[in-house]
């Protein structure tokens, strides 16, 4: 059987420091935004920046504090990835492991040593690390002292941190992402960018000014990476998925276009090197005035080498969208699509939507794509034989890999594929462990109980076969 995937295609899985590592104060690490986000009813107001949470409370459970203890178990976990045949592993560096407060002049050597050990372990098995610099975790000191990304000083703090990473891990890491799902700051400002709103703020002004600072920081980091090692490949990262018009009514088509632009605004800047023409009117109508420094527009011309993205579901938009009819299951609001099935958590399952999204993005940017998150969150049960028969996950991944193969046949260059949550971890959306994504089961529940023991699921063996056949054998 022939495969549409190129011979050097990178197969693997993805996780994030804040959802996997735990050890939230070990090794000199400082507190981050995600460490303040509890499980339960207060989670959403904190994520949205509506409720200030600058101190931990004793009456709440914080899933990130121990997570799945990757910090102490990384050798075991990377060995499991190697057993599946991974050639790439996407993870993130916790900014506060290297700079506990975020504004120190010198990094924490213990943090550097930890990540060096992780990347060396990957290299032992010929696994390429794909490393995100900022995956939804800003050092809390930068939030309380500076207001996080609303403050221009963050550009210097971030570029110092980025330079430290590029220098410390030179030769171990060549694939880098600057900000994870950068567009999510519009929808979940505290978890996305450490933003908390004050009385009298125009939230749109705050978010887009913070976005400008992140975009400048991302462009500078890209420039630094290329200067330190010309072989470094730097990507941006989008929470992807096209908006479909809910009907062929022209107003619905226009709303879908506007929603796509809102989503793609950041990548338009990072991949093209300038603010898009449509931004001027959007800013004017929202009362936004971006404060730029001299030279910012020149800095933004340092564009990324590739465009990475997550894809879980497509979305629907109409002119009549409102709080009553949008799907509350996802932080990016959309209408339920009556033509597709949904997951247990209400996310639309749309493999063809992945091909549509990939074609749209390549048409728009003409840069290689990298699908760095894709997966199905589901409840997994251990049967009487002690096995986890997650055929629903296999089915989801099979159809999405097929769609990705079709996109490659359409002529799109794709660097690789990393499924989300290759080992069960804390769900960013809900803080649950029961919303499982992995090929490897982790014995832990939503309240933090369990042995943390790892167990291979049926999908583990299926994905191993997929990788071994370079995507040719999906049965």
From TrEMBL:
<dbReference type="GO" id="GO:0016052">
    <property type="term" value="P:carbohydrate catabolic process"/>
</dbReference>
<keyword id="KW-0378">Hydrolase</keyword>
<protein>
    <submittedName>
        <fullName>6-phospho-beta-glucosidase</fullName>
    </submittedName>
</protein>
<dbReference type="InterPro" id="IPR033132">
    <property type="entry name" value="GH_1_N_CS"/>
</dbReference>
<feature type="active site" description="Nucleophile">
    <location>
        <position position="373"/>
    </location>
</feature>
<comment type="similarity">
    <text>Belongs to the glycosyl hydrolase 1 family.</text>
</comment>
<dbReference type="GO" id="GO:0008422">
    <property type="term" value="F:beta-glucosidase activity"/>
</dbReference>
<dbReference type="Pfam" id="PF00232">
    <property type="entry name" value="Glyco_hydro_1"/>
</dbReference>
<dbReference type="GO" id="GO:0005829">
    <property type="term" value="C:cytosol"/>
</dbReference>
<dbReference type="InterPro" id="IPR018120">
    <property type="entry name" value="Glyco_hydro_1_AS"/>
</dbReference>
<keyword id="KW-0326">Glycosidase</keyword>
<dbReference type="InterPro" id="IPR001360">
    <property type="entry name" value="Glyco_hydro_1"/>
</dbReference>
<dbReference type="InterPro" id="IPR017853">
    <property type="entry name" value="GH"/>
</dbReference>
